[in-house]
Amino acid sequence: MEFVLLLHVLIVIIICPSMIVNSCNSSSLIAMKSKPQPPVFPSNFFFGTASSSYQYEGAFSSYGKGLSNWDIFSHEAGNILDGSNGDIAVDQYHHYLEDLDLMEDLGLNSYRFSISWARILPKGRFGNVNMAGIKHYNKLIDALLHKGIYPFVSLTHYDIPQELEDRYGAWLSPKVQDDFRYYADVCFKYFGDRVKYWVTFNEPNVAAIRGYRSGIYPPSRCSASFGNCSTGDSLEEPLIAAHNIILSHAAAVSTYQTKYQKTQGGSIGIVVNAIWFEPISNSSKDKLAAERAQSFYMNWFLDPIIFGRYPVEMQQILGSQLPAFSRKDLNKMKSGIDFIGINHYTSFYAKDCMYSQCEQGPGVSRSEGYYLRTAFKDGIPIGVTTEVDWLYVHPLGMEKIVTYIKERYNNTPMFITENGYGELNNPNSSVKDFLNDYRRVEYMNSYLDFLALAISKGADVRGYFAWSLLDNFEWISGYTVRFGLHHVDYGTLERTPKISAIWFKQFISNHSNLAST
Ligand SMILES: *[C@@H]1O[C@H](CO)[C@@H](O)[C@H](O)[C@H]1NC(C)=O
Ligand SMILES: *[C@@H]1O[C@H](CO)[C@@H](O)[C@H](O)[C@H]1NC(C)=O
Ligand SMILES: *[C@@H]1O[C@H](CO)[C@@H](O)[C@H](O)[C@H]1NC(C)=O
Ligand SMILES: *[C@@H]1O[C@H](CO)[C@@H](O)[C@H](O)[C@H]1NC(C)=O
C-alpha cells in the first residue's frame, strides 16, 4: 500500500510539479497533458453530463408527486450512510434554468436526465397522470432545446412509484410489465415529439443485484449469507426481477416501435453498468472466469435483449433456476434496441473459482458465476486508488470494455452514458480544496483518450456523458461523496465550477472545432 501511495504522489508531482504548494493552475496542468494529435471524435458527437431524478430533483412530495421506493427507503433509519435523503437533493426542480446556464457555458450539446415515474404517475397505472409533472418536464425539455442541448432521457433510474412495490412487489411480479409499458407510453405521448433519445432502464444489473441479492438498495430483500435483510431470497429473486425488467424493457420498446417511432423518429436503448474484468492471470481458467464475470454481470441483460437468450454460462451454471422466455416473450423481444448505454467507471480483476478453491468474496458464489472480483494482484491495485472504495483509475479499461461490447454485440451504436470521479466530502476540506479537482481532470482526460482510441479502431460510440454536472445525492452514500464538475454547497445550494468544469469546456471546444472543420 505504501508503494501505491508513493506512486500516486509521484504521478501527481510529475504532472503538476507545483501542486504541492497549491499553486498549480489549470493551464499548466492542461499544457502538460496535451498531446500533439488530439483524439478525434466523430462529428455530431454528444458531449453532455448525466443526472437522475432522485439524485437531483428534490421537491419529493410536492406538485402532485407520489412517493417513490427511494423516498420510503431513504427515510428509514440506517439505510443512508449520513442519514440524509433526496428530499431536496440539489433542488434541480426549482434550479433547472440556472443549471441549463451552466451546461450552456460548458458548451454541452446534450443532457442526460431521468423522469421521476412517481411524478408522472403517482399511483402507477392505478391512478391519474399528474399534469403538473408533465408540465415540469415540458418546461425542462423546451428550455434545453432552446439552448441547442438535446435531451437524452431515461424512463427510470432506480426510482419507481412505491405504490407498485406495495401492491404487488414491483419487479418480482410480471404485473410490473403492464405498468412500465403504460408509463413509457405516457412519456412517449407527451414528450416524444421533442425527445429523440430514450433509455428504458438505467443499470438494471445494479438495481437487481443491490435490491434483491445484497439488499442494500430498496426493496432491501436478501437472504442470510448475502446481507442483512428481514426477508428475500438472494438466489432466486435477482433472476426473477431481472426477467421482469427485461420483459418490461421489451414492452416499452415494442410500444415505441409500433406507435411512435415512425412519426417521432427517435431511438431507444438501455443503459448497463459496465465493469472491465481483467483476467488476473493468462491461464485459461482465469480468462474463462473474466468471461463469466461479464456474463453474470452485464450480458445477463444485454444477451436476452439482443440475442433473445440468457448468456450460455448462466444457462450452464443456473440451469432451470433461470426463468424461461415463452414464445410470446421472444416475439416481443425481437424489437431489440437502437443503442447500448455504457456506464463505466472502473475495472477489477477476475480470478477463477469454478476449477480452483476460493475463500468467500464478491463474485464467488454459484449465483454470481464462480469468480473472485478483486482490485488487487500481488498486493498491487489494478489502478490508482481513489477516496471511493470501489473506484480504481484504470483508463485502459475504457478501451477494453467498449471493444468487448462492440465485438459481442456487432457494433451496435454505443454511448458512454456515465463516467466520472468521486471524492469524499471531507468536512475538513475547504471549498477551494474541492474546486482544485486535478485528479478528476486527470481521470477524465485519460478515460477520454482511451475512448478515442477505441473509436479510432472502429467502435461506433456516439457520445460521452460525464457523471456529473453537479455534486449530488449519491444513493446509500448520501452526500458523503462528490462527483460533480461543479461544487454544490448543500446549505445554500450554490453551484461553483471546479477546475474540471473549466477543463471539460476547453476539451469540448477543442474537439467540436475539430469535428466541424
Ligand atoms: C442487521 O439489521 C438489524 C436490524 O436492522 C440490526 O439490528 C443489526 O445490527 C444488523 N446486523 C448487521 C450485521 O449489520
Ligand atoms: C498475458 O500475456 C500478455 C501477452 O503475452 C502479457 O502482455 C501480459 O502481461 C500477460 N498478463 C498476465 C497477467 O500475466
Ligand atoms: C478533521 O480534522 C480533525 C482535527 O484535525 C481530525 O481529527 C479528523 O480526523 C479530520 N477528519 C477527516 C475526515 O479527515
Ligand atoms: C485545447 O487546445 C489547446 C490548443 O491546442 C491546448 O493548448 C489545450 O491543452 C487543449 N485543452 C484541452 C482540455 O484539450
Automatic annotation (TrEMBL):
Pfam families from the UniProt entry: Glyco_hydro_1 (PF00232)
Any one GO molecular function term: hydrolase activity, hydrolyzing O-glycosyl compounds
Single biological process term from Gene Ontology: alkaloid biosynthetic process
DNA damage is among the record's keywords: no
Keywords attached to this entry: Glycosidase, Hydrolase, Signal
Top-rank taxon, per record: Eukaryota
Leader sequence segment: 1-26
Family per similarity comment: Belongs to the glycosyl hydrolase 1 family.
Name assigned to this protein: Uncharacterized protein
Organism: Cinchona calisaya
